[in-house]
Specification:
Helix content: 40-55%
Number of strands: 11
Radius of gyration: 21 Å
Number of helices: 16
Distance between the termini: 31 Å
């Protein structure tokens, strides 16, 4: 196993400093709120964490309904439980951001990661208060939603749909979709399309266009614009084609061949249409109605977490992200603080299973059960 780089050591120390005394850090506690569909863990006043949990449940009720209409309601399979970790600001979130090629991704306000055992959404709440901007919480929730419908989703579509729904606004029994993301719109109007459509469609999570901070902005902007055009901006025929494309993906069809089947083998026509679309001063919005109703416990109870419990949550998230060395540091610290903490034993046992250390894994899992 490779030795830690100085950068990784710094990040670990920074993160441990952030959570060293979570009950008093910044005058705020770490709180856990359990709702019908999520476990929401956040540092701050309980009412603030509860507000975000209720907001997430509200949008789960609405967007899952809206998206089911779009794709015909066919899900790929059962969904693992989901834990949402809310950091108060970017400094607290920084040590837990995605790592690409050994480097922490810059310019990232949140991320979603999935596994058969548990899904995680993690983000900084610093930008969530601006009413005229897109929501990182909604963006990452859409990744969770897509994960439950599609076995494999092209990267442009994942990010395009997440951006599209991230500006959803609810009023009464109506939801408005497709509100502008002003920085994306301004970038496209100023510079036009800088990524050829064929290239955009072929980007995956290992592509420099996705992994490099300086290039990711253009990729997100064009993915959002293409999705916005096919859903809201084109004619009824384009929207019907897009719906058919989503149906094919939900059935497990290959993304590239499905796109050619639905939109034709030559993408030049759509590229011309998209270039004209992004030059517009505004993009159209779309309103859908839904039955009103809470659909969840509007006053979920909160629990104050101990230092050990917070550290175990963070260690488990890192373990499921494949950051084994970092995860072990957190899980061991959690057990040093509370040797009887079952969650830390189970997570460390799962880590040992990944490492092929079966005897240690069995011992740890037995301790967790006990």
């Amino acid at each position: 196993m490779n030795a830690r780089t100085p950068q990784r050591i710094f990040l670990i120390l920074l993160a441990l400093a952030c959570i060293a005394s979570p009950a008093r850090a910044g005058g705020a506690e770490w709180v856990s709120i359990r709702t019908e569909n999520f476990t929401v863990v956040g540092r701050g006043r309980e009412r603030d964490v509860r507000r975000e949990a209720e907001r997430l449940e509200q949008f789960h009720l609405i967007l899952s309904t809206v998206f089911a209409r779009l794709v015909g309601g066919v899900r790929a399979g059962p969904r693992a439980p989901t834990t949402v970790i809310l950091f108060p600001d970017d400094a607290a979130y920084a040590p837990f951001k995605p790592v690409f090629g050994g480097r922490v991704a810059g310019g990232v306000a949140g991320h979603f990661q999935s596994s058969p055992e548990v899904n995680y959404i993690a983000l900084s709440l610093a930008g969530e208060r601006a009413e005229d901007s897109s929501s990182t919480l909604l963006h990452e929730y859409v990744h969770l939603l897509l994960n439950s419908y599609f076995r494999a989703t092209p990267t442009w579509l994942k990010e395009g749909l997440a951006e599209f729904y991230s500006t959803a606004r609810v009023s009464g029994g109506r939801v408005t979709l497709g509100a502008p993301i002003k920085p994306r719109q301004q970038l496209l109007r100023r510079g036009g399309l800088t990524i050829p459509l064929e290239t955009l469609l072929a980007v995956d999570e290992y592509s420099p266009l996705y992994r490099e901070d300086a290039r990711r902005t253009a990729f997100y902007a064009e993915s959002w614009a293409l999705t916005h055009y096919l859903l809201n901006g084109g004619n009824a025929a384009r929207r019907a084609q897009f719906t058919h494309y989503l149906d094919l993906l939900a059935s497990g069809a290959d993304a590239a061949s499905s796109f050619r089947e639905v939109f034709g083998p030559n993408t030049q026509e759509i590229e011309r249409e998209l270039a004209a679309y992004v030059s517009r001063p505004s993009y159209p919005e779309h309103v859908e109605t839904f039955e009103r109703g809470a659909g969840f416990d509007a006053t979920p109870r909160g629990t104050t977490l101990s230092n050990a419990e917070v550290t175990a949550h963070l260690g488990d998230m890192l373990m499921h992200a494949g950051r084994e060395e970092d995860a072990e540091a957190y899980l061991r610290r959690a057990l040093e603080a509370d040797a009887r903490l079952a969650a830390a034993h189970v997570s460390l046992g799962a880590l040992r299973l990944r490492q092929g250390r079966l005897d240690e894994a069995v011992l740890l899992l037995r301790r967790g059960i006990a």
